[in-house]
Structure formats: structure tokens, C-alpha cells
Amino acid sequence: MARIISVCNQKGGVGKTTTSTNLSAYLAALGKYVLLVDLDSQANATVGLGVHVAENGSNVYHSLISDLNPALVIKKTSLFGFDILPAAQSLAGATVELVSMEQRELRLKKVLDSLRTNYDYIIIDCPPSLGLLTVNALAASERVIIPVQCEYYALEGLSQLLKTVELVRGGLNTDLQVLGVLLTMYDRRNQLSNQVLNEVSKNFPGRVFNAVIPRMISLAESPSFGKTILQFDPDSKAARAYRQLAEEVIRLN
Fold first, then answer.
1. Which of 15, 84, 151, 207 is deepest in the core (most CB within 10 A)?
2. 25: helix, coil or strand?
3. Three-state DSSP class for residue 48
4. pTM of the model
5. For 153, which DSSP code?
6. d(CA 231, CA 2)
7. Do 219 and 238 contact (CB within 8 A), yes or no?
8. For residues 142-165, b (16+ Cβ closer than 10 Å) or e, as one string?
């Protein structure tokens, strides 16, 4: 039975998609069966893994809104044991359509419950907002990973996200817990990066992953080749950091 983990932060550009795809890749490399759910209408995770969905092609939107069997939508990635439930631009309309639906916050949970026995981990790449799609992701998950960029406004908005997690835990999903905060785009030569690392560790004692994701060109480049860092630059510091993260996630679960 799969452990379902959301990678969530309403701020854009903090490394959610990079983390979702590379964590999934390393979990698969460590022998786990993994499904990545692309819940962002920009479909960056889908495209960045070299998976192509035709403009009107079946994607997670059709399972959420039209009850299309998700097993018919899932695509294999180029890595063994790593599948994706892809997104496309049509997902942008889901937020509006969900509003009037019955049990609108639990639509994704229903979709994923039918797949849980096929995987060890289901990782959800959340959109950069705290709208209905993110609430669906949190309602379907047991754990949340919060990527935080090592920059000046790093902690801004985190209290709002944690409040949303509490609301979901109180009303929709009593099992939901924060698995940890992940520091991304870290540059050890940069004083600000070190300040953020200390600040986050102080605010979330015992809840910060030991793995710290460095700022690296190869991490930014790899999606343009449809590859994860494991395939694109496996000996890099970034690759080692994502492997360490995957090991920590397995240990914590």
C-alpha cells in the first residue's frame, strides 16, 4: 500500500517540481515502485520527464473531473519502476469545475485510492497556490514535504501553508503530517543561504531534512533533456543530495 506524499509550497520557484521528479527517480533507483502525480497545469514535471501528452490527450484532469480510470492515463517514464500520472493545460480548468462538485476536496483521494496497491510511494507535485487542487493533494496524502528556497523571503507564507495543513488535518484528513522541510538552491559560499539554513532549523527543530539541495546548473538543465539528475549528471552534488533525501524519506516512513 503506497505512502502518499505531497511536495507543497504555495510560493513558485522553490524547487517543488525539481524535488518531486528527482525524489521519485531516486526512490525508484532504490528499488521502490513510484507514481508521480503532476497536479500543476503548467505540466513541468510531465514535460521535464520527456513525457508527451497531446493537447486534448488524457491526463490527470480527466480522472479528477470525468472519473476516467487513472490506470488508462498513467505513462511510464524512462526509469524502471517510475510512472507518472501526467498533466496538461486542461488541468487549469479543474479549479473552477471542482467548485460545484460533490466532495470536491476528496476527488484526488478517490483517484489515488484505486492505485495505491500498485506502488510503494505516490508523490504529488502540487501547484504554486493554496487552491482546491492543493487541498485535494493534502486531503489525499499522509505526509507533506515543504521545499524552501535559501533566499531572503524563504519563510514568508510558510505559516499560511502550515495553517492550511492544520485545517485539512482537522476537517478532511486526520493522518496528514509534515514529513519535513527541504532546503533548496543552497550556496554555501553565500552568507544568506547559511542564515536561512539556521533560521529554518530554529523554526522547525527536528523537522528539517539533513539533505540540502545545492544550487546547480545541471539541475536546471536536466528537464530540457527530459531527464532527471540521476540520468543527466549522476556524480554531481545535486544527485548525491537527492539520493540522500530519498534514503531519508524511506527511513522516516
1. 84
2. helix
3. helix
4. 0.97
5. T
6. 25
7. yes
8. bbbbbbbbbbeebeeebeebeebb
Helix (H, G, I), strand (E, B) or coil at 173: coil
Cα 177 to the chain's mean position, in Å? 15
Q: What are the backbone dihedrals phi and psi of residue 142, each rounded to the nearest 5 degrees, phi first?
A: -100, -25
Query: What does the block give as the cell for 215?
Result: 544550487
Beta strands in 8-88 (DSSP E): 34-38, 75-76, 82-85
* All three cell numbers of 179: 514529513
- pLDDT tens digits, one per residue of 218-243: 999 999 999 999 999 999 999 999 99
Q: How many residues does the chain have?
A: 253
Cell of 218: 545541471
Please state at what angle helix 158-171 crosses helix 132-140, rounded to 10 degrees: 60
C-beta of residue 58 within 8 angstroms of C-beta of residue 73: yes
Q: Nearest to residue 181, comparing CAs of 39, 1, 11, 2? A: 11
pLDDT digit string, tens, across residues 5-51: 999 999 999 999 999 999 999 999 999 999 999 999 999 999 999 99
CB atoms within 10 A of CB 42: 17
Is the CB of residue 8 less than 8 Å from the CB of residue 134? Answer: yes
Q: Which of 9, 39, 5, 10 is nearest to 24 (CA)?
A: 5
List, in order of start, the domains of the chain with CATH numbers: 3-252 (3.40.50.300)
